[in-house]
Design goal:
By secondary structure, the chain is of the alpha+beta class. It is built from 15 helices and 19 strands. The strands form five sheets. A six-stranded mixed β-sheet has the order 11-10-16-15-9-12. Strands 7-8-2-18 form a four-stranded antiparallel β-sheet. A four-stranded antiparallel β-sheet has the order 3-4-6-5. The radius of gyration is 34 Å and the shape is elongated.
Protein backbone atom coordinates (compact mmCIF):
# COMPACT_ATOMS: atom_id res chain seq x y z
CA UNK A 1 0.00 0.00 0.00
CA UNK A 2 1.43 3.38 -1.01
CA UNK A 3 2.04 6.11 1.54
CA UNK A 4 -0.65 8.28 -0.09
CA UNK A 5 -3.31 5.58 0.15
CA UNK A 6 -2.25 4.70 3.70
CA UNK A 7 -2.48 8.34 4.78
CA UNK A 8 -5.92 8.83 3.17
CA UNK A 9 -7.22 5.59 4.70
CA UNK A 10 -6.04 6.60 8.17
CA UNK A 11 -7.66 10.04 7.71
CA UNK A 12 -11.02 8.49 6.79
CA UNK A 13 -10.75 6.08 9.74
CA UNK A 14 -9.98 8.94 12.14
CA UNK A 15 -12.95 10.94 10.84
CA UNK A 16 -15.17 7.88 11.33
CA UNK A 17 -13.91 7.29 14.91
CA UNK A 18 -14.39 10.99 15.75
CA UNK A 19 -17.92 10.82 14.36
CA UNK A 20 -18.75 7.76 16.46
CA UNK A 21 -17.37 9.58 19.52
CA UNK A 22 -19.62 12.57 18.74
CA UNK A 23 -22.77 10.55 18.05
CA UNK A 24 -22.47 8.18 21.03
CA UNK A 25 -23.97 10.65 23.61
CA UNK A 26 -27.06 10.93 21.39
CA UNK A 27 -27.51 7.18 20.89
CA UNK A 28 -26.48 6.05 24.40
CA UNK A 29 -27.75 8.76 26.73
CA UNK A 30 -27.08 7.90 30.37
CA UNK A 31 -24.76 4.97 29.55
CA UNK A 32 -21.50 6.85 29.02
CA UNK A 33 -18.85 8.17 31.44
CA UNK A 34 -19.32 11.69 32.77
CA UNK A 35 -16.18 13.03 31.06
CA UNK A 36 -17.53 11.86 27.70
CA UNK A 37 -20.87 13.65 28.00
CA UNK A 38 -19.12 16.73 29.41
CA UNK A 39 -16.85 16.84 26.35
CA UNK A 40 -19.65 16.65 23.80
CA UNK A 41 -23.39 16.61 24.35
CA UNK A 42 -26.23 14.92 22.47
CA UNK A 43 -27.81 16.47 19.38
CA UNK A 44 -30.14 19.26 20.47
CA UNK A 45 -33.71 18.94 19.24
CA UNK A 46 -35.79 21.96 18.31
CA UNK A 47 -39.21 22.92 19.62
CA UNK A 48 -41.05 21.01 16.89
CA UNK A 49 -39.22 17.75 17.68
CA UNK A 50 -39.06 17.60 21.48
CA UNK A 51 -42.09 19.71 22.32
CA UNK A 52 -42.20 22.98 24.22
CA UNK A 53 -43.63 26.48 24.06
CA UNK A 54 -43.96 29.01 21.25
CA UNK A 55 -44.74 32.52 22.50
CA UNK A 56 -45.08 35.86 20.78
CA UNK A 57 -45.01 38.74 23.25
CA UNK A 58 -45.99 42.31 22.46
CA UNK A 59 -44.10 45.06 24.30
CA UNK A 60 -46.39 47.93 25.32
CA UNK A 61 -43.90 50.59 24.27
CA UNK A 62 -46.31 53.46 24.98
CA UNK A 63 -45.98 52.59 28.66
CA UNK A 64 -42.21 53.01 28.35
CA UNK A 65 -42.74 56.52 26.97
CA UNK A 66 -45.11 57.33 29.85
CA UNK A 67 -42.58 55.99 32.34
CA UNK A 68 -39.90 58.21 30.80
CA UNK A 69 -42.14 61.28 31.16
CA UNK A 70 -42.87 60.37 34.80
CA UNK A 71 -39.16 60.04 35.50
CA UNK A 72 -38.45 63.44 33.92
CA UNK A 73 -41.21 65.03 36.02
CA UNK A 74 -39.81 63.57 39.26
CA UNK A 75 -36.25 64.57 38.42
CA UNK A 76 -37.28 68.05 37.22
CA UNK A 77 -39.11 68.80 40.47
CA UNK A 78 -36.00 67.86 42.45
CA UNK A 79 -33.76 69.99 40.17
CA UNK A 80 -36.06 73.03 40.43
CA UNK A 81 -35.91 72.92 44.21
CA UNK A 82 -32.15 72.35 44.26
CA UNK A 83 -31.58 75.38 41.99
CA UNK A 84 -34.04 77.54 44.03
CA UNK A 85 -36.12 78.30 40.97
CA UNK A 86 -39.49 79.75 41.95
CA UNK A 87 -42.39 78.05 40.17
CA UNK A 88 -46.10 77.80 40.79
CA UNK A 89 -46.78 74.29 39.61
CA UNK A 90 -45.30 71.35 37.74
CA UNK A 91 -47.82 69.15 35.98
CA UNK A 92 -48.30 66.62 33.23
CA UNK A 93 -50.83 67.26 30.48
CA UNK A 94 -52.34 65.11 27.73
CA UNK A 95 -50.07 64.33 24.83
CA UNK A 96 -47.14 63.50 27.10
CA UNK A 97 -46.45 67.15 27.81
CA UNK A 98 -44.61 68.47 30.85
CA UNK A 99 -45.74 71.97 31.88
CA UNK A 100 -43.99 74.25 34.37
CA UNK A 101 -45.87 77.39 35.48
CA UNK A 102 -43.66 80.32 36.54
CA UNK A 103 -44.46 83.85 37.68
CA UNK A 104 -42.20 85.95 35.43
CA UNK A 105 -39.84 85.83 32.46
CA UNK A 106 -36.73 85.78 34.63
CA UNK A 107 -37.72 82.51 36.30
CA UNK A 108 -38.84 81.23 32.90
CA UNK A 109 -35.36 81.82 31.51
CA UNK A 110 -33.88 79.83 34.41
CA UNK A 111 -36.29 76.98 33.65
CA UNK A 112 -35.29 77.04 29.95
CA UNK A 113 -31.60 76.89 30.86
CA UNK A 114 -32.15 74.07 33.37
CA UNK A 115 -34.14 71.94 30.94
CA UNK A 116 -31.73 72.58 28.05
CA UNK A 117 -28.79 71.43 30.19
CA UNK A 118 -30.46 68.30 31.55
CA UNK A 119 -32.89 67.29 28.79
CA UNK A 120 -31.62 68.53 25.42
CA UNK A 121 -33.93 66.13 23.57
CA UNK A 122 -37.08 67.92 24.79
CA UNK A 123 -38.90 70.33 22.49
CA UNK A 124 -39.83 73.57 24.26
CA UNK A 125 -42.65 76.09 23.81
CA UNK A 126 -43.62 79.15 25.87
CA UNK A 127 -47.26 80.19 26.34
CA UNK A 128 -48.76 82.99 28.43
CA UNK A 129 -51.54 81.41 30.40
CA UNK A 130 -54.51 82.69 32.36
CA UNK A 131 -53.73 85.11 35.17
CA UNK A 132 -50.47 86.22 33.52
CA UNK A 133 -48.57 83.07 34.42
CA UNK A 134 -45.94 81.87 31.97
CA UNK A 135 -46.36 78.26 30.90
CA UNK A 136 -43.25 76.39 29.82
CA UNK A 137 -44.34 73.42 27.71
CA UNK A 138 -41.90 70.57 27.08
CA UNK A 139 -42.45 67.41 25.08
CA UNK A 140 -40.34 64.57 23.75
CA UNK A 141 -39.39 64.82 20.09
CA UNK A 142 -40.69 62.19 17.68
CA UNK A 143 -37.16 60.89 17.24
CA UNK A 144 -36.67 60.57 21.00
CA UNK A 145 -40.02 58.77 21.38
CA UNK A 146 -38.99 56.28 18.69
CA UNK A 147 -35.63 55.79 20.42
CA UNK A 148 -37.40 55.10 23.74
CA UNK A 149 -39.68 52.55 22.09
CA UNK A 150 -36.78 50.86 20.30
CA UNK A 151 -34.73 50.73 23.49
CA UNK A 152 -37.71 49.32 25.41
CA UNK A 153 -37.96 46.38 22.98
CA UNK A 154 -34.20 45.75 23.03
CA UNK A 155 -34.08 45.92 26.82
CA UNK A 156 -37.13 43.65 27.09
CA UNK A 157 -35.44 41.13 24.79
CA UNK A 158 -32.27 41.17 26.89
CA UNK A 159 -34.25 40.86 30.12
CA UNK A 160 -36.21 37.93 28.68
CA UNK A 161 -32.97 36.26 27.63
CA UNK A 162 -31.56 36.64 31.16
CA UNK A 163 -34.72 35.16 32.68
CA UNK A 164 -34.76 32.22 30.27
CA UNK A 165 -31.06 31.52 30.92
CA UNK A 166 -31.68 31.38 34.68
CA UNK A 167 -34.86 29.35 34.15
CA UNK A 168 -32.61 26.63 32.67
CA UNK A 169 -34.09 26.06 29.21
CA UNK A 170 -31.80 24.32 26.73
CA UNK A 171 -31.37 25.92 23.29
CA UNK A 172 -34.05 28.63 23.59
CA UNK A 173 -34.86 30.95 20.69
CA UNK A 174 -35.46 34.65 21.35
CA UNK A 175 -35.84 36.98 18.38
CA UNK A 176 -37.15 40.46 17.82
CA UNK A 177 -39.98 40.79 15.32
CA UNK A 178 -41.78 43.73 13.75
CA UNK A 179 -44.46 45.79 15.53
CA UNK A 180 -42.52 45.71 18.82
CA UNK A 181 -42.96 41.95 19.25
CA UNK A 182 -40.63 39.28 20.61
CA UNK A 183 -40.64 35.62 19.54
CA UNK A 184 -39.72 33.12 22.25
CA UNK A 185 -39.41 29.37 21.73
CA UNK A 186 -38.67 27.17 24.74
CA UNK A 187 -37.96 23.54 23.76
CA UNK A 188 -38.61 20.84 26.34
CA UNK A 189 -40.42 23.11 28.80
CA UNK A 190 -42.35 21.08 31.37
CA UNK A 191 -44.28 23.81 33.21
CA UNK A 192 -45.83 26.22 30.65
CA UNK A 193 -47.81 28.21 33.25
CA UNK A 194 -44.72 28.94 35.33
CA UNK A 195 -42.78 29.97 32.23
CA UNK A 196 -45.51 32.41 31.17
CA UNK A 197 -45.67 33.90 34.67
CA UNK A 198 -41.90 34.25 34.77
CA UNK A 199 -41.58 35.86 31.35
CA UNK A 200 -44.61 38.13 31.51
CA UNK A 201 -44.00 39.64 34.94
CA UNK A 202 -42.99 43.29 34.71
CA UNK A 203 -41.07 43.06 38.02
CA UNK A 204 -41.00 46.79 38.73
CA UNK A 205 -39.52 46.87 42.23
CA UNK A 206 -40.06 50.14 44.10
CA UNK A 207 -39.57 51.39 47.64
CA UNK A 208 -42.18 53.95 48.77
CA UNK A 209 -42.80 55.60 52.11
CA UNK A 210 -46.13 54.87 53.81
CA UNK A 211 -48.45 57.83 54.60
CA UNK A 212 -49.27 57.05 58.22
CA UNK A 213 -51.59 60.07 58.55
CA UNK A 214 -53.93 58.99 55.76
CA UNK A 215 -57.40 57.70 56.59
CA UNK A 216 -57.69 54.19 55.15
CA UNK A 217 -61.52 54.26 54.93
CA UNK A 218 -61.47 57.52 52.99
CA UNK A 219 -58.72 56.19 50.74
CA UNK A 220 -60.72 53.05 49.92
CA UNK A 221 -63.71 55.30 49.15
CA UNK A 222 -61.55 57.19 46.65
CA UNK A 223 -60.62 60.22 48.78
CA UNK A 224 -56.84 60.16 48.64
CA UNK A 225 -54.53 62.92 49.91
CA UNK A 226 -52.68 64.70 47.11
CA UNK A 227 -49.47 62.98 46.11
CA UNK A 228 -50.48 59.54 47.40
CA UNK A 229 -51.89 56.32 46.02
CA UNK A 230 -53.77 53.32 47.36
CA UNK A 231 -52.05 49.95 47.18
CA UNK A 232 -52.75 46.61 48.81
CA UNK A 233 -50.41 44.69 51.05
CA UNK A 234 -50.29 40.95 50.42
CA UNK A 235 -50.50 38.79 53.55
CA UNK A 236 -50.85 35.01 53.76
CA UNK A 237 -52.41 33.35 56.79
CA UNK A 238 -49.84 30.75 57.94
CA UNK A 239 -52.44 28.40 59.37
CA UNK A 240 -55.03 28.45 56.56
CA UNK A 241 -52.90 29.54 53.62
CA UNK A 242 -55.50 32.14 52.61
CA UNK A 243 -54.24 35.36 51.01
CA UNK A 244 -55.47 38.60 52.55
CA UNK A 245 -55.06 42.00 50.93
CA UNK A 246 -54.77 44.94 53.30
CA UNK A 247 -55.20 48.50 51.93
CA UNK A 248 -52.24 50.82 52.40
CA UNK A 249 -51.70 54.46 51.42
CA UNK A 250 -48.22 55.27 50.11
CA UNK A 251 -46.67 58.41 48.66
CA UNK A 252 -46.46 58.57 44.86
CA UNK A 253 -42.78 59.40 44.92
CA UNK A 254 -40.53 56.36 44.61
CA UNK A 255 -37.53 56.75 46.92
CA UNK A 256 -35.62 53.79 45.46
CA UNK A 257 -36.08 51.36 42.56
CA UNK A 258 -34.94 47.84 41.75
CA UNK A 259 -32.71 49.16 38.97
CA UNK A 260 -30.01 49.61 41.63
CA UNK A 261 -29.99 45.93 42.67
CA UNK A 262 -26.83 43.88 42.23
CA UNK A 263 -28.09 40.47 43.43
CA UNK A 264 -31.12 38.60 44.74
CA UNK A 265 -31.16 35.18 46.43
CA UNK A 266 -33.55 32.93 48.31
CA UNK A 267 -32.99 32.54 52.03
CA UNK A 268 -34.86 30.67 54.79
CA UNK A 269 -36.28 32.54 57.79
CA UNK A 270 -35.16 30.67 60.92
CA UNK A 271 -38.13 31.87 62.96
CA UNK A 272 -40.92 30.65 60.70
CA UNK A 273 -38.91 28.32 58.44
CA UNK A 274 -40.24 30.20 55.41
CA UNK A 275 -38.33 31.38 52.32
CA UNK A 276 -37.72 35.05 51.67
CA UNK A 277 -35.75 36.96 49.04
CA UNK A 278 -32.54 38.62 50.17
CA UNK A 279 -31.50 41.57 47.98
CA UNK A 280 -28.22 43.44 47.65
CA UNK A 281 -27.87 46.94 46.22
CA UNK A 282 -24.97 48.16 44.14
CA UNK A 283 -22.70 50.97 45.40
CA UNK A 284 -25.09 53.74 44.33
CA UNK A 285 -28.14 51.89 45.67
CA UNK A 286 -26.44 51.08 48.99
CA UNK A 287 -25.59 54.75 49.54
CA UNK A 288 -29.12 55.82 48.64
CA UNK A 289 -30.67 53.14 50.90
CA UNK A 290 -28.42 54.28 53.74
CA UNK A 291 -29.59 57.90 53.32
CA UNK A 292 -33.28 56.96 53.10
CA UNK A 293 -33.27 54.76 56.20
CA UNK A 294 -31.28 57.36 58.17
CA UNK A 295 -33.82 60.07 57.33
CA UNK A 296 -36.92 57.93 58.03
CA UNK A 297 -36.21 56.09 61.31
CA UNK A 298 -39.52 55.14 62.94
CA UNK A 299 -41.47 55.31 59.66
CA UNK A 300 -42.77 52.51 57.46
CA UNK A 301 -41.30 51.76 54.06
CA UNK A 302 -43.35 49.76 51.58
CA UNK A 303 -41.60 47.27 49.30
CA UNK A 304 -43.73 47.31 46.15
CA UNK A 305 -43.48 44.84 43.26
CA UNK A 306 -45.77 45.49 40.30
CA UNK A 307 -48.09 47.68 42.43
CA UNK A 308 -48.45 45.01 45.11
CA UNK A 309 -47.01 45.66 48.59
CA UNK A 310 -45.12 42.57 49.71
CA UNK A 311 -44.08 44.02 53.05
CA UNK A 312 -44.09 47.41 54.79
CA UNK A 313 -41.69 47.16 57.76
CA UNK A 314 -40.91 49.96 60.21
CA UNK A 315 -37.38 51.34 59.83
CA UNK A 316 -35.94 50.75 63.31
CA UNK A 317 -32.50 52.15 62.59
CA UNK A 318 -30.21 53.34 59.86
CA UNK A 319 -29.35 50.43 57.52
CA UNK A 320 -25.86 50.54 56.04
CA UNK A 321 -24.30 47.98 53.72
CA UNK A 322 -27.06 47.90 51.10
CA UNK A 323 -28.85 44.71 52.21
CA UNK A 324 -32.59 44.19 52.59
CA UNK A 325 -35.14 41.41 52.34
CA UNK A 326 -38.53 40.86 50.77
CA UNK A 327 -40.82 38.56 52.74
CA UNK A 328 -44.41 37.76 51.98
CA UNK A 329 -45.18 34.18 52.99
CA UNK A 330 -43.72 32.86 49.74
CA UNK A 331 -43.65 29.27 48.66
CA UNK A 332 -40.19 28.03 47.73
CA UNK A 333 -41.08 28.20 44.02
CA UNK A 334 -42.47 31.75 44.29
CA UNK A 335 -39.36 32.95 46.10
CA UNK A 336 -37.08 31.32 43.51
CA UNK A 337 -38.98 32.86 40.60
CA UNK A 338 -38.96 36.30 42.23
CA UNK A 339 -35.20 36.08 42.78
CA UNK A 340 -34.72 35.08 39.11
CA UNK A 341 -36.79 38.04 37.93
CA UNK A 342 -34.99 40.54 40.17
CA UNK A 343 -31.55 39.26 39.12
CA UNK A 344 -32.49 39.43 35.45
CA UNK A 345 -33.84 42.95 35.81
CA UNK A 346 -37.27 44.51 35.47
CA UNK A 347 -38.98 44.95 32.14
CA UNK A 348 -38.95 48.55 30.87
CA UNK A 349 -42.60 48.19 29.82
CA UNK A 350 -45.37 45.63 30.34
CA UNK A 351 -45.68 42.79 27.84
CA UNK A 352 -48.78 40.96 26.70
CA UNK A 353 -49.04 37.52 25.14
CA UNK A 354 -50.04 37.84 21.49
CA UNK A 355 -49.64 34.15 20.63
CA UNK A 356 -49.22 31.06 22.77
CA UNK A 357 -48.77 27.58 21.33
CA UNK A 358 -47.63 24.45 23.10
CA UNK A 359 -46.16 21.51 21.19
CA UNK A 360 -46.54 18.21 23.04
CA UNK A 361 -43.59 15.79 23.25
CA UNK A 362 -45.69 13.02 21.69
CA UNK A 363 -46.27 15.17 18.60
CA UNK A 364 -42.54 15.90 18.49
CA UNK A 365 -41.67 12.19 18.70
CA UNK A 366 -44.15 11.48 15.93
CA UNK A 367 -42.37 14.08 13.76
CA UNK A 368 -39.02 12.41 14.51
CA UNK A 369 -40.36 8.99 13.58
CA UNK A 370 -41.80 10.28 10.31
CA UNK A 371 -38.58 12.14 9.54
CA UNK A 372 -36.44 9.05 10.13
CA UNK A 373 -38.86 6.99 8.05
CA UNK A 374 -38.60 9.46 5.14
CA UNK A 375 -34.79 9.41 5.39
CA UNK A 376 -34.75 5.59 5.32
CA UNK A 377 -37.19 5.39 2.40
CA UNK A 378 -35.17 7.94 0.44
CA UNK A 379 -31.91 6.15 1.26
CA UNK A 380 -33.28 2.75 0.19
CA UNK A 381 -34.51 4.13 -3.13
CA UNK A 382 -31.16 5.80 -3.78
CA UNK A 383 -29.26 2.61 -2.83
CA UNK A 384 -31.35 0.43 -5.16
CA UNK A 385 -31.03 2.88 -8.03
CA UNK A 386 -27.25 3.19 -7.67
CA UNK A 387 -26.59 -0.55 -7.32
CA UNK A 388 -28.86 -1.46 -10.24
CA UNK A 389 -27.44 1.21 -12.53
CA UNK A 390 -23.76 1.29 -11.52
CA UNK A 391 -23.27 -2.25 -10.09
CA UNK A 392 -20.06 -2.45 -7.96
CA UNK A 393 -19.41 1.28 -8.32
CA UNK A 394 -22.92 1.83 -6.99
CA UNK A 395 -21.92 -0.09 -3.85
CA UNK A 396 -19.01 2.36 -3.41
CA UNK A 397 -21.50 5.26 -3.70
CA UNK A 398 -23.71 3.58 -1.07
CA UNK A 399 -20.75 3.35 1.33
CA UNK A 400 -20.13 7.06 0.76
CA UNK A 401 -23.83 7.78 1.38
CA UNK A 402 -23.81 5.85 4.68
CA UNK A 403 -20.73 7.70 5.89
CA UNK A 404 -22.36 10.94 4.76
CA UNK A 405 -25.26 10.44 7.20
CA UNK A 406 -22.83 9.55 9.99
CA UNK A 407 -20.76 12.69 9.36
CA UNK A 408 -23.88 14.90 9.27
CA UNK A 409 -25.05 13.61 12.66
CA UNK A 410 -21.54 14.04 14.08
CA UNK A 411 -21.21 17.64 12.90
CA UNK A 412 -24.65 18.51 14.32
CA UNK A 413 -23.46 17.22 17.71
CA UNK A 414 -19.99 18.82 17.58
CA UNK A 415 -21.22 22.24 16.46
CA UNK A 416 -24.08 22.23 18.99
CA UNK A 417 -26.59 22.84 16.17
CA UNK A 418 -30.28 22.37 16.85
CA UNK A 419 -32.10 19.78 14.74
CA UNK A 420 -35.59 20.92 13.74
CA UNK A 421 -38.33 19.43 11.59
CA UNK A 422 -37.25 21.53 8.55
CA UNK A 423 -33.72 20.40 9.44
CA UNK A 424 -34.85 16.81 8.95
CA UNK A 425 -36.18 17.90 5.55
CA UNK A 426 -32.69 19.22 4.82
CA UNK A 427 -31.23 15.80 5.68
CA UNK A 428 -33.74 14.07 3.38
CA UNK A 429 -32.79 16.46 0.58
CA UNK A 430 -29.11 15.82 1.27
CA UNK A 431 -29.65 12.07 0.97
CA UNK A 432 -31.12 12.63 -2.49
CA UNK A 433 -28.29 14.94 -3.49
CA UNK A 434 -25.50 12.93 -1.83
CA UNK A 435 -24.89 10.64 -4.80
CA UNK A 436 -25.18 13.45 -7.33
CA UNK A 437 -21.40 13.97 -7.27
CA UNK A 438 -20.82 10.22 -7.65
CA UNK A 439 -23.11 10.16 -10.68
CA UNK A 440 -21.04 12.91 -12.33
CA UNK A 441 -17.82 11.03 -11.57
CA UNK A 442 -19.16 7.68 -12.75
CA UNK A 443 -20.45 9.14 -16.04
CA UNK A 444 -17.03 10.71 -16.67
CA UNK A 445 -15.38 7.32 -15.98
CA UNK A 446 -17.79 5.65 -18.41
CA UNK A 447 -16.86 8.16 -21.09
CA UNK A 448 -13.16 7.44 -20.55
CA UNK A 449 -13.79 3.65 -20.74
CA UNK A 450 -15.69 4.11 -24.02
CA UNK A 451 -12.63 5.91 -25.37
CA UNK A 452 -10.62 2.75 -24.68
CA UNK A 453 -8.73 3.82 -21.55
CA UNK A 454 -7.69 1.24 -18.93
CA UNK A 455 -9.84 1.12 -15.75
CA UNK A 456 -7.21 2.78 -13.52
CA UNK A 457 -6.55 5.57 -16.02
CA UNK A 458 -10.30 6.01 -16.60
CA UNK A 459 -10.79 6.29 -12.84
CA UNK A 460 -8.03 8.86 -12.53
CA UNK A 461 -9.31 10.92 -15.45
CA UNK A 462 -12.96 10.67 -14.36
CA UNK A 463 -12.30 12.06 -10.89
CA UNK A 464 -10.04 14.78 -12.30
CA UNK A 465 -12.51 16.02 -14.93
CA UNK A 466 -15.56 15.89 -12.65
CA UNK A 467 -13.85 17.65 -9.73
CA UNK A 468 -14.39 21.29 -10.75
CA UNK A 469 -17.94 20.63 -11.95
CA UNK A 470 -18.82 19.09 -8.58
CA UNK A 471 -17.21 21.97 -6.66
CA UNK A 472 -19.03 24.60 -8.74
CA UNK A 473 -22.43 22.91 -8.39
CA UNK A 474 -22.17 22.35 -4.64
CA UNK A 475 -20.58 25.73 -3.92
CA UNK A 476 -23.55 27.61 -5.38
CA UNK A 477 -25.95 25.49 -3.29
CA UNK A 478 -23.81 26.08 -0.20
CA UNK A 479 -23.86 29.84 -0.78
CA UNK A 480 -27.65 29.76 -1.07
CA UNK A 481 -27.84 27.78 2.21
CA UNK A 482 -25.57 30.30 3.95
CA UNK A 483 -27.78 33.17 2.77
CA UNK A 484 -30.83 31.35 4.13
CA UNK A 485 -29.04 30.88 7.45
CA UNK A 486 -27.96 34.53 7.66
CA UNK A 487 -31.27 36.15 6.78
CA UNK A 488 -33.78 33.45 7.62
CA UNK A 489 -35.48 32.85 10.96
CA UNK A 490 -36.75 29.81 12.83
CA UNK A 491 -37.58 26.90 10.49
CA UNK A 492 -35.67 28.41 7.55
CA UNK A 493 -32.44 28.52 9.56
CA UNK A 494 -32.96 24.93 10.72
CA UNK A 495 -33.24 23.82 7.10
CA UNK A 496 -30.17 25.86 6.13
CA UNK A 497 -28.03 24.34 8.91
CA UNK A 498 -28.56 20.70 7.91
CA UNK A 499 -28.35 21.54 4.20
CA UNK A 500 -24.99 23.29 4.67
CA UNK A 501 -23.59 20.48 6.80
CA UNK A 502 -24.95 17.90 4.37
CA UNK A 503 -23.29 19.57 1.37
CA UNK A 504 -19.90 19.68 3.11
CA UNK A 505 -20.21 16.05 4.21
CA UNK A 506 -21.32 14.85 0.77
CA UNK A 507 -18.41 16.63 -0.92
CA UNK A 508 -15.97 14.88 1.41
CA UNK A 509 -17.53 11.43 1.00
CA UNK A 510 -18.13 11.65 -2.77
CA UNK A 511 -14.75 13.03 -3.80
CA UNK A 512 -12.43 11.77 -1.08
CA UNK A 513 -13.92 8.68 0.60
CA UNK A 514 -15.21 6.99 -2.57
CA UNK A 515 -11.81 7.50 -4.23
CA UNK A 516 -10.09 5.85 -1.25
CA UNK A 517 -12.43 2.84 -1.57
CA UNK A 518 -11.71 2.50 -5.31
CA UNK A 519 -7.95 2.82 -4.80
CA UNK A 520 -8.03 0.27 -1.96
CA UNK A 521 -9.69 -2.40 -4.16
CA UNK A 522 -7.68 -1.63 -7.30
CA UNK A 523 -4.26 -1.31 -5.65
CA UNK A 524 -1.94 -4.16 -6.67
CA UNK A 525 -4.54 -5.79 -8.93
CA UNK A 526 -4.62 -6.10 -12.70
CA UNK A 527 -8.18 -5.03 -13.43
CA UNK A 528 -9.25 -5.35 -17.05
CA UNK A 529 -12.88 -4.35 -16.59
CA UNK A 530 -14.48 -1.94 -14.11
CA UNK A 531 -17.99 -2.76 -12.87
CA UNK A 532 -19.67 0.53 -13.67
Amino acid sequence: MSKSLRFRSVLVLLCLLLSVFAIAPTLMQGNLPQWWTNTIGPIQLGLDLQGGMHLVLGVEVDKAVESRIDTIIDQTETLLREKDIIFKRLERRPGDQLVILVYDAAEGAKVDALMADNYPSLEAETITGAGGYIEKHFRLSDKEIENIKDYAVRQALETMRNRVDQFGVSEPTLQRQSDYRILIQLPGIEDPERAIALLGKTARLEFKMVDEAANIQDAVAGKLPEGTQLLYERNVNRSTGATIEKPLVVFDKTVLTGDLLSDANVRIDNRFNEPYVSIEFNAVGAKRFDQITAANVGKRMAIVLDDTVYSAPVIRERIAGGSAQISGSFTSQEATDLAIILRAGSLPAPVKIMENRTVGPSLGQDSINKGIKSILVGAVLVVLAMIIYYKFSGVVAVIALSLNLVFIAAMLAMFGATLTLPGLAGVVLTVGMAVDANVLIFERIREEIRLGRAPKLALESGYGKAFMTIIDANLTTLLAALVLFQFGTGPVRGFAVTLSIGIIASLFTAIFVSRVVFDFFLKGREVKRLSI
